Amino acid sequence: MFWNSLITILLVGAAAVWWASRIDTGVKKIPAIEGRLDELSSKVDQILGYLKSPSGKDVLISSSPLTLTDYGKKLFDLINGERIVNNHHTKIEIDEHMTDYEIQKACNDFTFLNMFDELSNAERTSIYDVAYNEGIRVEAIKSLLAISFRDKLLSIRALSASNNIE
Question: What are the φ/ψ torsions at residue 107 (nearest 5 degrees)?
Fold first, then answer.
């Protein structure tokens, strides 16, 4: 009885592997599904960024609105975050009618989906080096950059609004 079950399991497994190898060649990529998978990947990266680093240090204070911890500010300085934010904040697509939340979402989307393509080699290397030396995930640094982009864009909007009032 044991041998019959074992042979059946092996035959079913071999048939499943053969079938999977045959259908793989006929599957075409579907752009809508790829887009949703990219979005899902971004969300997972954001969640990982909000988690504590392996060293147990948080980079964000989970209050409303999210803000950097002292450790997050230290990391921001180590990666020369002010230069990164100043160099790239104009690449985030926002408009004057967006809410603060929508601006934060646009900053998260940019940071987790597109930012690394926009960074110089030196900026990218700085982020990787700090993540490695601090024993944290790159996603944690992306999270603090997303909040820093948000703060920059909100301050520009507030300054623009106050200039229009005068």
Answer: -65, -40
Q: Is residue 131 within 8 Å of residue 143, measured between CB atoms?
A: no
Quick one: which of 67, 158, 46, 163 has its CA closest to 112?
46
Report pLDDT digits (tens) over 10-69: 556 566 655 555 555 555 566 666 666 666 665 555 555 444 455 556 766 666 788 888
In total, the chain counts a number of residues equal to: 166
Which residue is it, tokens 């230069």? 83
How far, in Å, CA of 159 to CA of 164, rounded? Answer: 9
Is the pTM of the predicted complex or chain greater than 0.70? no
Residue ranges of the alpha helices (H) in 25-80? Answer: 31-50, 70-78
